[in-house]
Structure formats: structure tokens, C-alpha cells
Sequence to fold (165 residues):
Amino acid sequence: MTGEQLPGSPAPLVPPTPPAAPVPLEARLGYLLKHAQQRLTRASAEALAPFGVDGHELAVLAVLAAEYPLSQVEVAGRLGVDRTTMVALVDGLEDHGLVERRRSPQDRRKNIVELTAAGHDCLRQAELARRETERRFLAPLGEEAGAALVRALRVLVVGVGEGEE
Fold:
């Protein structure tokens, strides 16, 4: 026989292809990003604790400081959080005297949220702590590689490259 298969005969045995070697977790991008983010989150939480805010609350303060006046809904949109989460964040910040709500004079259905003097002070101090925490987190990479990582992640997350905006 020359290797031809006769009609009705069983298929020739072909050795199975060996499975690909599993990729170690430490080589998977998702695993690495998740665990790097968890480490940074823990370090940031420790750094922000003295100011009585967490990373989410600090983001609210930063958005409010960048543009005035904004409604709760507008802040939620910029942060990518739902309305319920936004209300809880603003409630907590308001309870600590860092923000205050008021009705919009142009649209009484909107709550405008503004930083108080204490909110501005908290933002300034907490931002310094956040930046220092990020600097220490990236330090093992060296300044140039750390900056390159931040630029690359920015391209992946917001689609903005160097010199664009």
C-alpha cells in the first residue's frame, strides 16, 4: 500500500499535536497590569489616608478643581461612574466639608458641586502625596522607562500620544 486510504477503512492514526506550553502568569499582560494596579492602589491608599480621602474621592476633587461649575452628573461622566456612585462620593466629601452642593441657577434640576477652602487644601496636599507615591512606585524602572510606561498606558487608555490633545 502507498499510504492511500481505502474507502470504508478507518482513518490513519495521526499522533496528536502536543499542547502549547502554558504561559506563566508572570508573562501575561492582564495578570501584570492587574497586580501592578493592586500594588499601586495599596500604596496610594496608605499615602492618602492622612488626608481622609481615597483615590476615587481625590479624583472627584481633581475634576472639580479643573473646571467650574460642574454638576454631579457632569463629574460622574468625566470619571466614568454611575449616578448612584457619584452621589455616594459627593455625600462623603460633603460630610467631611471638602465640597458643597448648590442648585444651579440656570437649571434648578442640577446640583452644582464646588470645592470648599478645605477641599482645595486637601486636594493640594493629597496630590503631592499621590505624585510622590507614583514616583516611588515607578522608581525601580528608572525615570526614563517610568515616563515611557505612563505614556504607553495613556495611549492604550485614552488614545492620546505624545504631543496630542
